[in-house]
Amino acid sequence: MTARFFVPRDSGSLAVGADEVAVALASAARKRNTPVEIVRTGSRGLYWLEPMIEVATPKGRIAYGPVDPRDVDALFDAGILGGGPHALRLGPPEEIPFLKRQTRLTFARCGVVDPLSISDYRAHGGWRGLERAIRLEPAMIVEEVIQSGLRGRGGAGFPTGIKWRTVRDAESVQKYVVCNADEGDSGTFADRMIMEGDPFVLIEGMAIAGIATGAAKGFIYIRSEYPHAVATMAAAIEAARREGWLGKPAAGSFNDFDIELRVGAGAYVCGEETSMLESMEGKRGVVRAKPPLPAHHGFFGKPTVVNNVLSLASVPIILSEGAQFYRDFGMGRSRGTMPIQLAGNVKRGGLFETAFGVTLGELVDDIGGGTASGRPVRAVQVGGPLGAYFPRTLFDTPFDYEAFAARDGLIGHGGIVVFDDTVDMARQARFAMEFCAVESCGKCTPCRIGSTRGVEIIDRIRHDVEREANLALVEDLCSTMKFGSLCALGGFTPYPVMSAIRHFPEDFGASPRLAAAE
Amino acid sequence: MKSWNKGRAEEIIQAHRNTQGAALPILHGLQTEFGFVSEEAIPMIADALNLTRAEIHGIVTFYHDFRREPAGRHVLKLCRAEACQSMGGDALAARVRERLRLGWSETTDDRSVTLEPVYCLGLCACAPAAMLDGRPVGRLDRESLDALLDGVQP
Q1: CA A461 – CA A470 distance, rounded (Å)
Q2: To the nearest whole angstrom, how far is the Cα of A470 from the nearest Cα of chain B?
C-alpha cells in the first residue's frame, strides 16, 4: 500500500519551509522502506498552521501542522501513516474550526487537488460550468451571471453580469477577456492562492466569459511579484490546451478560446484596469479617462471584459449550480461569498471565504483570534493600502460593500491587515502618501505632486511644526486628491490618511478640540 | 546571469517583437537573460517596435522591475508594505541596511547582494516576508534574517 501525503506548493507554504518538509518526508519514508507518493497541492489557507501536511487514511485525510523537517521522524514513529496521535495532529482538515465555519464556493478545491491535474479537477466538479455554458445561448449565460448578483471582487464591486452584457452587445469582430491578476494590495493573497492552487477554475471562468461575450482570446495579467503563480498558470494553460479545453475550437463548443499570459513589472497602478490595458499594449501604465469604458474600447480599442481573478473563478459554480444558489448567500446588495484574507499581526492568518454579512469584529477577534503578538488590536486596515484604518469602535460593521462605504471605508479585494497597539498611526498615514508617490503613474497633478507634499506635511505634523495649520492643510490636500484624481490611487489615498487622523488623533498630537469631536 | 551581448539581445527582441504590445515581453526577456536592461538595448528596441528611443526610455523607467545596471550575485527583495510593517518589517529593513551598509536598490561593494524594496509578495499571513533570488521567505525575524544574509555574503 503506497502512503499518500499532500504537501502544499503554494508560495506562502514554501516561504515557511514546505519544500524542506517534502524532502524530509521522502527521506524518512525511504529510510523505512515505505513507498510514498507526495502530492503537491495548493494551500488550504490556514497559514498559521503551514507547513500543513495531510495524509490519506481509510477514514479520509488527516492534517498535521505546522510541520518542521525535524519533526518528520517523530511523526513517522508516532504513526502518521495511519493518522496517529501527535502534538501536531490537527485531525480532518474540514473539521478545523477556522475551515469548518467557511462557505467555500470559489475555494472549494484549493488545497484539496493537485493544481495541475485535469482529472483531479474534473473529479472535484470541474468543467461542469463550462459544459453547461456551451449548451446555453450566450445571452442566457450573461443573464445567469446577472441574476447571481456577482459583483467585481477586485474592489470596485461593479455587477459582473452587466459588464459582460455590455461587451456582448458591443459590435466588434474582435473582443477580449482580460483577467486582472495584478493583486498588489498588501493584505491580499486570494488571487495568488487560486492561481497556485486551482488554476483550472480561472481558465474555466474565462472560457465561459468568452462564450458569453463572443471573445475568442483571453489574457491574464499577473504581477511579477508572483513568480510561482505565473509558472503554475502557464503549466495549467498548457495542460488545458493539450486536453482541448482551450483552442480552436475550445471544449467541444463552436467557439475558439485561448489564453495568453502577460507579466507585470512592479507597478502597483497597473492593477487599475486602464493602466493595465496600457501596460499590455506595451506602454507606460498611465491611467485612461473613462468613458470610454474598456467594455466598449479596451485592449487595442476592442470591447474588453476586465475582471478580477475571484470574479472569474466564481463563474463556474454559478453556471453549474445556478444563479439562485449563489445569490442565496449574502445580504443586501452583497450576494454570494467573499474570500476574506486575514493578514498582518493576526494570530490565525489566512483565507476565510464566507457569505457577506459577518462583522469585522467577528473576523478579527473571533475567527482571527486577535493579534499574533498577543497585544491588543489597535487598528485594522481593510481593503488594501487605499482602504481606511478602522478602530475597535467600528468592529460592528458587517462585511458588506454598502455598510463599509457608509462608514467611510471600503472592503476592496477583501484584505484585512491587523495592527497591535505598537502601531504609530502617523507613520501609517505618512506611508500611505509615500506609497502613492512611489506608485503614481504621474498623470494627475494632485496624485503626482500631492502625495510628495503629503509626506512632507505629515512629517511636519509629526515634528510638531505648526501642527494645527498642517492638519487643516492635509485635510484640504486630501480633498483635492480625492476629487482631482482620475483613479483610485490618488483618489483613495485620502482614505487611510484621513481615517488615521480622524480615529487616532492622539498619534497626530491633535488638540483636545479634534479629539473631543470623536 | 549572462553578460550583456548585443547579438543575444537582438535574438530576444526578434523573438517577441510580433506579440501584441511587445515592449514588456521584450524587456522581461532581456532582464531574465542579463539581469538588467542595458542602455544599448534602447535603440535596438525602438528600432524593432518603430518607436522613439525616448518612448522606450519612458517605458523602461516607468516600471520598478527593470534595472538599468547589473544586479549583484544575489537579489534580496524585502517587503515594505502594510502587512509586513504590522509585524516589524521596518525594523528588519533597518537591520538589513545597517548590516549591508546599503540604501534601497543599491548593491554591496563586493557585488554579493543587491537590496530592493518590494510592495507586497502576497505572503501577508506569513509576515514579515522577502524574496531571495526568487525564493519566498516568510516569518522573518532578526535571527533568520541574519542567517539568510550569512548565506549570501562571503
Answers
A1: 6
A2: 24
- In the prediction, which pLDDT does A510 show? 62
CB spacing of A11 vs B123 below 8 angstroms: yes
Dihedrals phi, psi of A304, to nearest 5 degrees: -135, 130
What pLDDT is attached to residue A332? 80
Contact predicate A244/A252, CB 8 Å: yes
- The dihedral built from the CA positions of residue B51, B57, B62 and B64, taken in this order, carries a sign that is positive
Contacts of B118 in chain A (CB under 8 A): 225, 266
pLDDT digits (tens, 9 = 90+) for A165-214: 999 999 999 999 999 999 999 999 999 999 999 999 999 999 999 999 99
Residues whose CB is less than 8 angstroms from the CB of residue A378 and which lie 6 or more positions away in sequence, other chains included? A391, A392, A419, A420, A421, A423, A504
The reply to whether residue B59 touches residue A283, judged by beta carbons under 8 angstroms, is yes
pLDDT at B50 (0 to 100): 97
H or E segment at A310? helix A309-313
Q: Does the distance separating the beta carbons of A344 and B124 come in below 8 Å?
A: yes
B-chain residue closest to A419, CA distance: B86
Supply the mean pLDDT for chain B.
97
- pLDDT of B1 reads 78
Q: A187: which chain B residues are within 8 Å (Cβ-Cβ)?
A: 82-83, 124
